[in-house]
Amino acid sequence: MTTLLLKIKDGLSLPARIAGRSRLTYVLPMLCVVCLFAAGECRAQKILSVHKAKKQETIFGIAKDYGVTIDELRNANPAMREPDFVLKKGMLVNIPEHLESAGTPPGAPPRTPSPQTPPATANGMSDAAERERRLQQGYVTIGVMLPLHDINGDGLRMAEYYRGMLLAVSELKNEGYSITVNAWNVAEGDDIRKVLGDKNAAKCNVIFGPLYTAQVRGLADFCMSNNIPMVIPFSISGNDVQNCPQIYQVYQTPADLTAAAIEQFMQRFVNTYPVFIDCNDQTSKKGDFTFGLRKRLEAKGLEYSITNLNSGDETFAKAFRTGRRNMVILNTGRSPELGQVLKKLDTLTANNPAMKISMFGYNEWFLYTQVYGEKFRQYDTYIPSTYDYDPSSMRLKRIERDYLANFGGAVQYALPCFALTGYDHAMFFIKGLKKYGKSFRGMPSEKCHTPVQTPLVFGRVGNGGYQNKAFMLVHFSGK
Fold first, then answer.
1. Among residues 181, 210, 179, which one has the least CA distance to residue 194?
2. If you placed Cys at 418, which of 160, 268, 279, 294 could pair as Cys (CB 3.0 to 4.6 Å)?
3. Is pLDDT at 139 greater than 70 in this prediction?
């Protein structure tokens, strides 16, 4: 048994007790300010032309088209260095003269070795070539650029996510994988470009991060310049995935999930009789789903009924049909209203034993399974989701036991579980890279990992990056 203590800036210690003969390699460089510019670049730049930005153009693409570096372009356009800068159609972009001392522009053809060529490893190969050589030999290097601290909830949640990744790495190590983990604490407000100055960043086969939208652009530019996949594991704003081929965006917007849930309902349950129950919840945000579903039903000429939670039992019963399966849909995801609906359904079925009832619920209902799990099974409940936390899963129980044993505390009570999310993400990308090499895209045809909780299935977004399209209907069946 080997105990490793991962010391990270801001005082958080992540003890990782690793069983087995192989020892994990952790590289956690200190965050330090690195000068990114040569002395010669401090002189005034010469502006050769002005470019008018087109729709969906990127800083990387403009720099590549004009044969300048990204930093040269930003120096000539100071607004681009603002954290919230967004390149928009019609913007005028100064195109500077390229200086040889500035390095190689994006997409430039290989040149003979010189002081300006990309950084070389000890054997004289570029980082990209060395990274590819090692991957072909089965060595996978991952980078993690997230807030790994104990200052606030963001740090604690990301620390748990990271620990889940370490459990996956440990498991794969015991299976014979060769893995290096590089981790940086990138807190809110940090300039991620300072982290990217670390020599280990360019050695990664995949980088997980960042958590904050303001840091996406800097990391995306770096990953495009170095052709490194960049996994954004949690919610961010902006449309960088549409413009950056290296981005793998895991988060799906509520609008995406609502559209997927409606589509699944229309494909699987058109032969049921939908019963919408107005729960009088003025705070509910489920109208997009219920109104959208009703419109689709009406467009197909399909019947449905609407009743109210406050209706008397006789009036409530009139909304249901005998001889057909009734699919109950609430317009809220809250627990109190759900409990009241279940009581009314109990009364309804007691008075009408032959009544067939199913329910189509919401992701929040997973939080109530300890209270209503049996009722979900009784009423044949379907919950649309991007994850499935199954407490009866032996794999899930094992991972949670390993987490407690290795890190001295249980996982936080949150759904989806951050530790399991980190475990699944690490497993998916490490196994995918090992199996498919640099051609791995996470597409449905590339089978590499059966998820414990959080599935990943990526699809291309136009000519840009990749968006997670995973969608599940979790069925609570009493049969």
1. 210
2. 160
3. yes
